[in-house]
Design goal:
6 helices, acyltransferase activity, transferring groups other than amino-acyl groups, Aminopeptidase, 7-stranded mixed sheet, 176 residues, globular, alpha+beta
């Protein structure tokens, strides 16, 4: 599978709301310190806090200004999480975040999920723009977003801090 891969060649993915039964998976992903360097999390989450998040989320992007969903495959395995955050209804844009669990990485699930969230954002949410901040050193993520039609807009100096040094990030944008 290459950059020229069609949507039909990508693995099938489905999105669904996060359920209380997903607490252990959410706990594992949110507390994976290797992911903290590419996001805004820098403290561990308790199961209680995550349970309260699941219980308190309306699932309505207009009310919560975000929506987070489970990504699953045809076998029903939880492949990862996708979220739209910092939703701005006036300017019709949202930040895209995606995490694929280790056993499913390198199998094009991220590309499949990004293609699906693009369609959801365009057809259901009527969003004009998706964007993501990607670590300049994460060549896999950069290539995946580029394969999904995202363009590099700007390089942000010293944007990400890994606890020892700052790294650059690229603002990737997709216009629907």
């Amino acid at each position: 599978m290459t950059a020229e891969m069609t949507r039909e060649e990508l693995p099938a993915v489905r999105f669904r709301a996060i359920e209380p039964e997903d607490l252990d998976v959410l706990y594992k992903i949110e507390n994976d310190t290797s992911l903290w360097n590419v996001g805004v999390t820098n403290v561990p989450y308790s199961k209680y806090m995550l349970h309260e998040y699941i219980a308190g989320s309306s699932g309505d992007i207009y009310a919560d200004k975000q929506v987070r969903m489970i990504i699953s495959n045809d076998a029903g395995d939880i492949v990862g999480l996708v979220d739209l955050t910092d939703f701005d209804p006036r300017h019709r844009r949202a930040e895209l975040g995606i995490v694929i669990q280790c056993p499913f990485r390198g199998r094009h699930y991220a590309q499949a999920a990004i293609e699906r969230i693009k369609a959801y954002a365009r057809d259901i949410l009527l969003i004009h723009q998706l964007y993501a901040y990607v670590d300049c050193q994460n060549s896999t993520a950069l290539r995946t977003f580029e394969n999904c039609g995202f363009i590099s807009s700007i390089t942000l100096k010293d944007w990400l801090f890994d606890g020892k040094k700052y790294r650059e990030a690229v603002l990737m944008q997709y216009f629907l």
